[in-house]
Amino acid sequence: MANLLKDFEVDGKNPSLEARQRWRSSVSIVKNRARRFRMISNLEKLAENEKKRSDIQEKIRVAFYVQKAALQFIDAGAHREYKLTDEVKQAGFHVEPDELASMVRNHNTRSLTNSGGAEGIAQKLSVSLTEGVRSSELHIREKIYGANRYAEKPARSFLMFVWEALQDVTLIILMVCAVVSIGVGVATEGFPKGMYDGTGILLSIILVVMVTAISDYKQSLQFRDLDREKKKINIQVTRDGNRQHVSIDDLVVGDVVHLSIGDRVSADGIFISGYNLEIDESSLSGESEPSHVNKEKPFLLSGTKVQNGSAKMLVTTVGMRTEWGKLMETLSEGGEDETPLQVKLNGVATIIGKIGLGFAVLTFVVLCIRFVVTKATSGSITQWSSEDALTLLDYFAIAVTIIVVAVPEGLPLAVTLSLAFAMKQLMRDRALVRHLAACETMGSSTSICTDKTGTLTTNHMVVNKVWICENVKERQEENFQLNLSDQVKNILIQAIFQNTGSEVVKDKEGKTQILGSPTERAILEFGLLLGGDVETQRREHKILKIEPFNSDKKKMSVLTSHSGGSVRAFCKGASEIVLKMCEKVVDSNGKSVPLSEEKMANISEVIESFASEALRTLCLVYTDLDEAPSGDLPDGGYTLVAVVGIKDPVRPGVKEAVKICQDAGITVRMVTGDNLSTAKAIARECGILTADGVAIEGSYFRDLPPHEMRKILPKIQVMARSLPLDKHTLVNNLRKIGEVVAVTGDGTNDAPALHESDIGLAMGVAGTEVAKENADVIIMDDNFATIVNVARWGRAVYINIQKFVQFQLTVNVVALIINFVSACFTGSAPLTAVQLLWVNMIMDTLGALALATEPPNEGLMKRQPIGRTASFITKAMWRNIIGQSIYQLIVLGILNFAGKQILNLNGPDSTAVLNTIIFNSFVFCQVFNEVNSREIEKINVFKGMFKSWVFVAVMIATVGFQVIIVEFLGAFASTVPLSWQHWLLCILIGSLSMILAVGLKCIPVELNRHHDGYELLPSGPSESA
């Protein structure tokens, strides 16, 4: 099978165009192309959209590099004049929407200057740059300037899914046959008897179409909900004088937006104020070099990303008036990338479809030959009637219905159904799957490289210990008794409040709120406990320059000017890095005294002791300068003020989640910026660092030669003091040695590692928009236990599809062979077109609903991950398929050829009764085999069955409708009512397949392997039946 499917292989992430084109061209037998490929990306449409995007990017590039230069030579009088409309005047505004849009889009600095800069535009928009927009004005601003929403493809209605289900070629042929059958039947047998066969086929088709459409429509609703969740992005704005989070969809023109590293610019706007703002405009212009935005270059465009710095922006243009809005219109079409399992099952469906087509043609040919031979031997070869035409039409309908059953259209569609169900459940469990393939690939993950802060820990940080003036002080509940002199306290408060990327604001209730990263919040909270006041500090000292925290440098610096004209630089960051920059230390009198080697050693011991208690350590330092430096702030000559130890408790349940991963054969590796001692202490507390594991620093790892790196790689469990590049290198090398790697990330610099990994997991709370856009899954609660849940569902998807494939292939084999053999030997098919359509619905739509939506069981996380090259249809599955098929063929064959004698059936309706028994027995064999398929290897197939309400509902519906078909719809389905003894016989024949399944599962086919491609762990718990 593997050789036959070689053209149906694609990578789970970023598949090549060649591979995607190859498998599409290899799919040759498709009943309903519109439905089969509905969830698959349209390569032609994608190419068309790519051209549109390129055109828009080129247009923007021209605006950036040509128009900006040309504007310098254009006379102001030549500019287009925008006349103020009455609607804008009555609303109290003094600038037209198109004028604002044109100014920002064309980077027209002259027009901005003439309008009075950002302040002048704010006046025209009737907004205060300090207070922001008033909530009462939101509606009128949306009405005049538009909403921040983009044009989207309208949702498909239920009737569109009905129409799509009707595109099935085989169903169309059967409808034609049914109509002809009704016409010929009424002409030969009269009304209403002549209508029954054709009407039965039409009713069956309507039932199949409606069930298919309902299933597909519900899937589309699930994907629509997921799509809505993906687009939920919040941003900080100032409104009514307060800082608050709002959805980007609710942004209006005039809003004052606060931007920081990793944010996406969600509307066009003008720079108000900020520091070191660098914007990545590659998504719009295609240019990789960041653009520096400041007072001289004040324009910001929607869709770009903040690469460095922070700023306040005045929103000028929203929604479809922005270039990003036009670009988003092209992104809304094209479809989702296919998953490896979908592609593989398209291959399986193609192979089986070809076999089924061959059987259908053979069956039709054999039936026709036998019919002609029978007529020839009876001497009526030259006499043809409408009844003969009806018989041949019936043969043709049976052949077409065999194709309906034989082509397992439901296989690739079952993957979509299972993934949609899993993604819906994961969304409830606080994990948002952005790419379908990620959920599938997570089931194969062998390594999780996780951050510490916020993922393994609670991300609620507090300063727990402080070293200052050669004394260590510990937090006492909500207070610190530092007993410092006023001079020392003043320097410490300056070092805290001057050098921060966070802000202290008042919320709507007037309560103090600290905005910023958890580390920054902890230090500011510490400063507030000391009696510090942010406003006082900001008034007394003017900030001249900020060097924001950088993951590479692991420090943040700020340059301030004091009232006397002096200049002071503050720095804080990783203790061992910042400590090396110090030459002095503050004594108890607030004086700077030389930092001797002995004191340096003592401070290093304090840092080590803090770290061994799992505290994150930071040094706060400062230096006085004669004048403000023109370049970077100095890297030496500082005075040490304090060392703070920040506590970030481990999340409840993390240790248990890590243990589950280890039992499942998944190695958990912690990658952190903390020092080695802190990292090891946390890793031991989480159960990540084991006796035979290795904990190393990023600097040591990145300098290793390739052969040594490969040797140590499998043993690495902790990487401390790592840079984003180290995480990327670790992920890249783990993949090279065959690992399937999931990696977490929250910062902008994590984007390369998230993109490189097999599964990128971004944090929903602490993660930046840049990280989220490069991720495959967003962990909404930043909890490691949620990551484990994604892996569990990933494995469940894979196994559920295996169960469904085993069930469907068994039905395929039996239905094909029984009809073909019967046609060869008796000249008739025991299963009619209507019956085969019902069987097709049982094994296709209903079977997928029952088996592909089963929730994960406990045993999934006690086995090894699925290998990249593992065979999808395992030997255990082939054993079950062949065993059940042989049993069903023998039983149905005996009934078909000797049923009348065995059951003592006599009378004119004996053939009808026998065929009904065969049909009923066949259906009950599938019902019980569907229960068997719940476990491919284990004997106990009932465990957890009643927890899956979908499975139970499908079973009840199938049995209930089978009773109705047999007892009440005989005229349409070619059945007759059965006695209770015959019903009992059919149920007994079906139930014997369960006893057979127990015997089959005792036959060993793979040494120490399980049905789902997993291997038992050597130390894993014993599996019970």
UniProtKB/TrEMBL annotation:
All residue ranges annotated as the Cation-transporting P-type ATPase N-terminal domain in the record: 106-186
Broad class of enzyme this protein falls into: translocase
GO CC term, one of those recorded: plant-type vacuole membrane
Signal peptide: none
Membrane topology per record: Multi-pass membrane protein
Reactions catalysed according to its record: Ca(2+)(in) + ATP + H2O = Ca(2+)(out) + ADP + phosphate + H(+)
Gene Ontology BP annotations: defense response to bacterium; monoatomic anion homeostasis; negative regulation of programmed cell death; regulation of cytosolic calcium ion concentration
Segments passing through the bilayer: 169-188, 194-214, 351-373, 393-422, 809-829, 881-899, 949-974, 980-1000
Listed GO MF terms: ATP binding; ATP hydrolysis activity; calmodulin binding; metal ion binding; P-type calcium transporter activity
Keywords attached to this entry: ATP-binding, Calcium, Calcium transport, Calmodulin-binding, Ion transport, Magnesium, Membrane, Metal-binding, Nucleotide-binding, Translocase, Transmembrane, Transmembrane helix, Transport
Compartment list: Membrane
InterPro entries: ATPase_P-typ_cation-transptr_C, ATPase_P-typ_cation-transptr_N, ATPase_P-typ_cyto_dom_N, ATPase_P-typ_P_site, ATPase_P-typ_TM_dom_sf, ATPase_P-typ_transduc_dom_A_sf, ATPase_P-type_domA, Ca_ATPase_N_dom
Pfam families: CaATP_NAI (PF12515), Cation_ATPase (PF13246), Cation_ATPase_C (PF00689), Cation_ATPase_N (PF00690), E1-E2_ATPase (PF00122)
EC number annotated for this UniProt entry: 7.2.2.10
Aminoacyl-tRNA synthetase listed as a keyword: no
CDD domains per UniProt: P-type_ATPase_Ca_PMCA-like (cd02081)
Family to which the UniProt record says this protein belongs: Belongs to the cation transport ATPase (P-type) (TC 3.A.3) family. Type IIB subfamily.
Biological role stated in the UniProt entry: Catalyzes the hydrolysis of ATP coupled with the transport of calcium.
Protein name, entry field: Calcium-transporting ATPase
Species in which this protein is naturally found: Arabis alpina
